[in-house]
Amino acid sequence: MKKNPSDVQSKPSVQVLERMFTLIDVLASREEAISLKEISEKTGLHPSTAHRILNDLTIGRFVDRPESGSYRLGMRLLELGNLVKARLSVRDASLAPMRQLHKLIQQPVNLSMRQGDEIVYIERAYSERSGMQVVRAIGGRAPLHLTSTGKLFLAADDPQRVRSYATRTGLAGHTRNSITQLPILERELGKARQYGIARDNEELELGVRCMAAGIFDDQGQLVAGLSISAPADRLDEGWLPKLQSTADAISQALGYVNGRRTALTQAIAE
User: Fold this and answer.
1) Burial grade of 105 (CB within 10 A; 0-12, 13-18, 19 or more)
2) Considering the domain 88-267 in this protein, what is its CATH number?
3) In CATH, what number does 15-77 get?
4) Prediction pTM value
5) Which whole-number Å values give the CA distances from 20 to 31, 34, 42, in the listed order?
């Protein structure tokens, strides 16, 4: 039987991945650095093969080389592990409060996080029995400047990072309401910094408005946004205090000491 060329091509890549995981497992088995000779013996890989793969892992910071000929796990793995931990803990801490908020307002509640120049929706609370509603798909993505949660993350960046984002993305719009000019976006982000909330006024999708409040971890870092999405004519400003208190409760569950919501009353009044 004739072999599929794609199958033949994929075998070397799979083999390299298997060897890479084997090397990482060996490094994980010891707290101190391990010599290339011992790594080769434990994995059964030829020293030149092990050296080549370890060198690639070192470039990616998955492996450190404290001295010539010895290796240990790198800080990149810790960074990725902390990222996964943060996402899981945010989701776990958010589920019950999100469901409670949904019961109060009868509109979908979304939990989203930043990934690069986009937000990604990682959880939602909604009811299939409710009437007209805006339901965001888990795993869905959207540009930062077109979403309420995305604006919170941009507001947490310094001005130079915001300008870099604008340059990279071109501030492309999706609707006639989309903010596509940097000065207008900067004014919007100033409001988000002042009040701790952000809005999407039919900027991502016509007929849909959103409001979002930030979720912070024990280090005071913005890690997620909690948002309410609703048909434009149904978004109720009276939901804002409920949204804010829910986001605060989740932040407190993550270890954040709440002391920044002094502008909320002013925001509601305006």
Assistant:
1) middle
2) 3.30.450.40
3) 1.10.10.10
4) 0.66
5) 18, 15, 13
